[in-house]
Amino acid sequence: MSYTSEQLKGLSLFYKNQLLNNTITFWFPRSIDEEYGGYLFMRDADGSLIDDDKAVWIQGRGAWLLSTLCNTVEHRKEWLDWAKSGIDFLNKYGFDADGQMFFHVTRSGQPIRKRRYYFSETFAVIANAAYAKASGDEQAAEKARYLFGKCIEYSTTPGLLPAKFTKTRPTKGIGVPMIMMNTAQQLRETIGDPRCDEWISIWIEEIKNDFVKDDIKCVMEQVAPDGSIVDHIDGRTLNPGHAIEGAWFILHEAKYRNNDPELIALGCKMLDYMWERGWDKQHGGILYFKDVYDKPVQEYWQDMKFWWPHNETIIATLLAYTLTGDEKYARWHKLVHNYSYEKFHDKENGEWFGYLHRDGSLAQTAKGNMFKGPFHLPRQEWYCAQLLQGLGY
Amino acid sequence: MSYTSEQLKGLSLFYKNQLLNNTITFWFPRSIDEEYGGYLFMRDADGSLIDDDKAVWIQGRGAWLLSTLCNTVEHRKEWLDWAKSGIDFLNKYGFDADGQMFFHVTRSGQPIRKRRYYFSETFAVIANAAYAKASGDEQAAEKARYLFGKCIEYSTTPGLLPAKFTKTRPTKGIGVPMIMMNTAQQLRETIGDPRCDEWISIWIEEIKNDFVKDDIKCVMEQVAPDGSIVDHIDGRTLNPGHAIEGAWFILHEAKYRNNDPELIALGCKMLDYMWERGWDKQHGGILYFKDVYDKPVQEYWQDMKFWWPHNETIIATLLAYTLTGDEKYARWHKLVHNYSYEKFHDKENGEWFGYLHRDGSLAQTAKGNMFKGPFHLPRQEWYCAQLLQGLGY
């Protein structure tokens, strides 16, 4: 089964319509905090606020989304104003005295928690970069470039951030090269930065050499520094939806590099390996965690269906299909698209639920919390609509 | 419905038989590490090893269990030898240079992770205390008393251990007074310690005054330092099985204090409040997390059924019934006992599975991992058998 032109046009319209009239309208304008700036994103299914705290990751992601809509869909003044509200809040309250960013702050910006990761920083990079492009604000551009440099420093300087584990059994995660690659892509494609291309190549090499295992057809989530498999519970744990997100970052790079055939092959095989391991043949949907050798994983909720792996898989399969024309990817795209919009989409209130049991029944109703907000779903709808529109659909 | 004497005799035999011929035999002797000492507890349903790492909590819990069997069931030399193996391993490899204990070590005892909690220490207290009683080893007794003092110091000296959160919104958890109370009870009832009674009274007062909320019939998991409810997602999150564990620690204390009526009333109302909030009227079993105002909680897996809340609830309901004769508690005990031995118990291989979906279907097969090992289930079977035997059944 391939997609016809009509079907691709229909998908293009569907994603754009969902984005603008179902997803964005769930979050905005209700989430704008008129009093303190930033966003009040922790909401129940019906949009009611369940917590007025602010998750720093998602403040950045929200500002990125609004700025990106300005840059690519339509330059609406309200979107730009709302983006500025998030950027200003992050500048005022997002940073500790040591320059690191917080993870969780109160409504008025008082810090609750700082973590030993720099994901708050990566989301601040893409937020500032997209906002700088949308607004012409040179300070935001400088901030994006400065923070990108800090992230490179954090990722390449062992011991700069406090360690969670001792040095007994060193490991590294695919999350770092993945998020850094996507951060660099966003930076490059908004305000540009001469460092990006070279670093992206380095991170892709690391993923290809150390995390992708052709002999067992698998993308590892963690490995030893030399890329070998760490045969303990944590080291064996796979996150298929995350690896599939990595696959589309690489397919995106392939497209940017004039359909580079080696990168297309790499991204497609990552998708192939992890679709095979992650797609639930019994109930449909992407399983959250799997053990590389099918042993039990530590995380008891490993067979739940989360919203975001489905967003990543919708993007990855559509991108793979448009780059290769392989009908397998159209079939997979249709499977995951239909599953997701049937099971996750809240027909009554808009947006998606976040958490289903393995069998597809709803586990809880929150639309926004410390980890969920206007990011994976609107990014998917935006990315797919842009992709198809760019191809003439 | 009350229990007849015959039924109580039947339960007494059932628990003892399960303990000795189904639960203990799953773990031992296969888990004894003849090469490095300590225990290899991370096992799949059939007993096969899934990881040879060692969780420090569970090394202590295992040594406690084996020593306790010697002290209360039968003085078997093999149990004492196996207990010594765990005690020796902890002494050799459990402690960092700063005196704090690790959380996770390799098979040979190399440290993998240290956490900012002192639960490893509390389990080392009860392990050493029980082992000292079983063996007469005075060094173990000293170690237990010394570590108990360290735990009191950690629990009463803000800033002594690194903080997870900033000082913006201070909270405290019921876990600290609960685990300290149980640690003191174990210490007192094995080798004795003059500090225990007074500290236990202090911790019970703290639970009664700050965590038990009669106006909304609830036991909070976290509160502000003054006992007020923190109306944010984390502050609202209840853990009914944990609160029910706290209830039976208090009922145990009531029994120790010649059936102190105030403590019986306190323990019973904690059980009443949290049975009402935690028991799943649709599928049976104890739900893992609930929001105090029935809003969504952060933890997406909040409606899963874990093994250990069921162990705690079996103990609490049986203890409440034997202390009060209230037939409600016999009815609840029967409900949770039947649910648990039907759903969690592995009829094929012995012991219990750890993790069920809300509907009671199996979520994953591990018998042992970083958090599960020979503790909650054998402690329940041991405690209930001892309780009934002590009452003449």
Automatic annotation (TrEMBL), chains A, B:
Keywords: Isomerase. InterPro entries: 6-hairpin_glycosidase_sf, 6hp_glycosidase-like_sf, AGE/CE. Signal peptide: none annotated. Pfam families: GlcNAc_2-epim. Belongs to the N-acylglucosamine 2-epimerase family. This is AGE family epimerase/isomerase.
